Hints:
7 helices, mainly alpha
Amino acid sequence: MRHSELHRTHRIGWLRAAVLGANDGIVSTASLVIGVAAAEAERGSVLTAGVAGLAAGAMSMAAGEYVSVSSQADTERADLERERRELATQGAQEHAELAGIYVRRGLEPELAREVSAQLMAHDALAAHARDELGISEALGARPVQAALSSAGTFAIGAALPLATFALVPTSIGIAVVASTSLVFLAALGGASARVGGAPIRTAALRVTFWGALAMALTAGIGALFGTVV
């Protein structure tokens, strides 16, 4: 009888970047709009600041994700190249090293050596990458994917509080943006948890708490100093 399982680890790369982008888009733009509005700026100035924040934030997220994940990819490639050279020049030592890893995981020494020999005969570099270095195809660094996911979701997240402020009277703009942004954040936390198979309530509360804190601090600064922050 076939045993079917659903795992979600292959989603980690793009899901992490997407959630980070959307969360940052909602929180930073809502905080910016609330802070500028609390400083008693004109409606047009608030919207201009919000649009500028959306554009700058999306580009910043794309650049930041690409650079940081590229650094991870560079490190992975360097480690794989080093492992490739060691396999070519120190095959016996690498075989013993891999067998030792399997012994520490619970296999009998003789079986560990046999498993190591068979896996290295099949694909030595892949075996060492996975079991010695912790590098796998599913979890490998993908800079372009991370950059596009983060920038795209940031823009979408930022557009929500910005559109909300544009559609409501200025007199209630701060209250409406704050309340709807908390709803957006809760929905984001719940959706990301569902996609990743994590507890929905915990994720929603965590995202909402930090978003509320950021907006409250920004509103306080805007009201106190009357400056765009």
